[in-house]
Specification:
273 residues; four-stranded antiparallel sheet; eight-stranded antiparallel sheet; binds zinc ion
Length: 273
């Protein structure tokens, strides 16, 4: 497929996305770091082509009888052409520039800023478990990647912020924080399988849900976990409650959304507040 054709399809998705009823059915093509590129890869009267990016399989869904590859664009992607593989062919996706603001936070518990060796070992063990769950690819069919809000409340800081804890640079914020009182029930934003639960050093009590084809959501700082690993959940089912466990400054839900192992901005997948 030529770049011009991709560009045309990109514009088409974007302009259709501005119609209110269709905007709810398909998140808009958002080809920037931390965004989601939606790429037309052929007519759905044929079986879906295998699509991958960086050797990771991509989510493919049927939209209006066309196959769409849904690409989570990693936050550290430079602007320019990103190459995905579709049925063994390389297809270029234009990644546009997007800058995220800085956020400076003061954390009173210093071990969250400068963990000791024992804590670093624990963080390393937990990182492996979390990364495995976030990068998991389970074969399934997907008709939409739209999500319902897991809790109602102000979306208090946004995705992608370049963070400094006590003036020390740390990883960018890979989720959306939703302010809500401790104990507020958290609802699964669509059906899936619980792929990990745990009490982690930074994230506190955490639930990770596998929605199929590498589409994964994560819920952190919970006061209570209401599900078990391996369990299926339906959309709207309670998976836990808002809390203030782990590295936090107050009760809120940290809501992370992932495609092909890349953190993407949950705002693209949610209806507007
Ligand atoms: Zn957060």
């Amino acid at each position: 497929m030529t770049e011009r054709r991709l560009l045309f399809l990109g514009c088409l998705v974007l302009s259709l996305g501005s119609l209110p009823n269709l905007a709810r059915a398909t998140p808009a093509h958002s080809p920037w770091p931390g965004g989601i590129a939606i790429v037309d890869i052929g007519a759905a009267d044929q079986p879906p082509p295998v699509a991958s990016f960086d050797n990771k399989p991509l989510l493919v869904m049927n939209k209006d009888d066309r196959w769409q590859a849904v690409v989570g664009v990693p936050l550290d992607t430079p602007p320019g052409a990103l190459s995905i593989s579709v049925g063994g062919r390389d297809v270029a996706v234009d990644v546009v520039e997007h800058s995220y603001p800085e956020q400076r936070l003061t954390v009173k518990n210093k071990s969250y800023v400068s963990p000791d060796q024992e804590q670093l070992d624990r963080i390393g063990r937990e990182r492996k478990i979390i990364d495995a769950a976030l990068g998991r690819f389970r074969i399934s069919t997907t008709d939409s990647i739209e999500l319902a809000a897991p809790v109602d409340g102000p979306r208090s800081s946004s995705f992608g912020l370049r963070r400094f804890f006590n003036e020390q640079p740390r990883a960018p914020h890979k989720g959306m924080d939703i302010a809500a009182p401790g104990g507020t029930p958290i609802l699964a934003p669509r059906g899936g399988i619980i792929s990990a639960t745990g009490e982690y050093f930074f994230n506190g009590n955490t639930v990770i849900v596998d929605h199929g084809q590498g589409f994964v959501t994560m819920y952190c700082h919970l006061s209570n976990i209401a599900v078990e690993e391996g369990q299926s959940v339906a959309a709207g089912e309670v998976i836990g409650a808002v809390g203030a466990t782990g590295r936090v400054t107050g009760p809120h839900l940290h809501f992370g959304t992932y495609l092909n192992g890349a953190a993407v901005d949950p705002a693209i997948l949610l209806p507007p507040p």
